[in-house]
Specification:
Layout: E1 27-32, H1 39-52, E2 56-59, H2 64-67, E3 68-70, E4 73-74, H3 77-88, E5 92-97, H4 104-109, H5 136-153, E6 159-164, H6 178-192, H7 195-202, H8 229-255, E7 262-263, E8 265-266, H9 277-280, E9 288-290, H10 300-314, E10 321-325, H11 344-354, E11 357-362, H12 388-402, E12 410-411, E13 416-419, H13 422-428, H14 440-453, E14 458-461, E15 472-475, H15 483-490, E16 498-502, H16 524-527, E17 529-534, E18 543-544, E19 550-551, E20 556-560, E21 564-568, E22 578-585, E23 588-593, H17 599-613, E24 625-632, E25 635-642, E26 648-651, E27 654-656, E28 661-663, E29 666-669, E30 674-678
Parallel strand pairs: 1-2, 1-11, 2-5, 5-6, 6-7, 8-9, 9-10, 10-11, 13-14, 13-15, 15-16, 16-23
Antiparallel strand pairs: 3-4, 12-24, 17-20, 18-19, 21-22, 22-23, 24-25, 25-30, 26-29, 27-28, 27-30
Amino acid sequence: MTFVSAVVRPPAEARGGLLRWPTDGISYGGDYNPEQWPREVWDEDVRLMREAGVDLVSLGVFAWGTVETSDGVRDWSWLDDAVDLLHRNGIAVDLATPTAAPPNWLLTAHPEITPVLADGFREPPGGRLAWCPASPTYRHYALRHVEELARRYGRHPAVRLWHVGNEFGGGNARCYCDVSASAFRDWLTHRYGTLDAVNAAWGTAQWGHRYGEWEEILPPRGRHGAPNPGLFLDYERYSSDALLAHYVAEREVVERHSSVPVTTNLMVGAGAQIVDYASWAPHVDVVANDHYTLVDDPDREEDLAFAGDRMRGLSRDRAPWLLMEHSTGGPSWQQRNRAKDPGEIARNAIGHVARGADGVLFFQWRASRAGAEQFHSAMLPHSGTRSRIWREVVDLGGRLRALAEVRGTRVEPARVALVVDDVAGWALQHGLKPHRGLRYGHELRAWHRALWERQVLCDVIPPSGDFDGYDLVIVPTLLVVDDDAAARLSAVPARGGTLVVTYLSGICAPDGQVRPGAFPAAFRDVLGAWSDEFYPLQVGESAGLDDGTAVEDWTERIYLEEAEAMVSYTTGPLAGGPAVTRRHVGGGAAWYVGAALPRDGVDRVVDRLIAEAGIARTVVGPPGVEAVRRSGDDRSYLFLINHTPRAHTVDASGFDLWSGTVAGPSVLLGPGGIRVLREP
């Protein structure tokens, strides 16, 4: 199979595409599935969409089998009707290629296209994304249908955006079939060239796993739980690239018939992701995301902010992005699906807009009566227009119309960057490390939360990003890093910035091999401190720190060279030794955090970091009050969101687009309150 070049794709306008956003203001809507309903319901749908202020819907996401009812036999009549109906009512269409859902006639004729799990079990039809990314048979049928779809609707005035597939990898992230094994070997040939290079990269002398022929290389199948780390990492990379190759193949078909921008919905959050989103982002015209809060997350609002900050970090030049999906209430896939509190729908939506989204869409428009997501919340719930959700949906639509002038502005430049890498996340969560219970998202969220609670804006960017514009760069558990990124990060202090590196960063090279010398090898010189041994604490153990806190998870023995101890152990096996160090470098500083600090320990370090770097807070408010500024041309907008049950006052002024009133010089934020101030 053909894999995607790493060459960055030019933006849509450079290829003759549309410059304008799909709608005139902040886009508002959701997934629309008219094929699930009788025709008479459609007229009610568009009437209620107009009442709610809906101006953009995703259409046809799972409609392959309802158009192509058998091999080569298509009935476009209902889709023609739906597209025309939406267009007559002023509702733009984000038209999906429906290839996330192969039709049953195809799965019956070609059962070999379904994914195979690591234990050899082949997934039966009926689930999500039931296709192997390496299958040439699936690729043939999918592109054939996309060609017909794009030819038919590519120049329809209703179609303002193309939505290729759906949540790539959200059901077929890894396939271990023989076709995938062959494609993986092709990928390895392209990456390494020779078997000797593969053996060297993977260190196959360990356990006697040397490969003598390409055909001997297989995916990391089985349940032994200890595949070679290099093999594991490369299979993760291959799997991401295989999915990306299919996305690009569909996108290229669409672009033969349409100049409308093309995207797909990512699933960006904290932690190791399904695919390497930094490698995907250059291949979409509008970066789009699906985001759902989790019941067991005590910091749901910060998680939402993290996702928004990462979307902005993935978007070219921090351009506005699109929230393709979130929920009005409980989803359908968690253990206990939580209903949202009154006003939470608006707070979630505006939280995304504050952090750069120019569109707020939900899954879905009308709640489904049947199928796997029949109890998933919707803009129009089962209880209809008498429901609280509907009232809040209509109210939000009106509020977003009042925010139309915000569209096209950009979030102000952040002075803090948090470095995140999906490949490092895969490596950290692989299990072959001194502490198998660690999760990549833990440290990312810990440092981001501390900044979020202090109203300090943070860009979440990949190691390939540009660090030059940031005064503070934080690198949490970046286990795998290449030499170029390590060098550019190490240069931050020399130009006057502050670099913060946490434990388990810079330990391994891109092939997964441990870098020789003391830890953290890639950053040892700039930090002026090093570690020779890890001390993961056992369950029930703790180590006291001289800042009054205690560590209950990760510790390591640290030696000082040119650095000084900022926090030290008072108890435990490392008592008297440093846990956090700092080295002055020119006009900047390099910090090493060699322990998994507790929440208040991270807070203390962050307070010192932002004070020493002179980083101002957007506003001064208590934790739970969110503040972000967007600006453009000669105007700026301050978003204030109170996620707490208590009223708070912050110093700010301007015309409040949310309430239509003048506010300031101090602003009262009621419990759960929102303000969007056009600043003077």
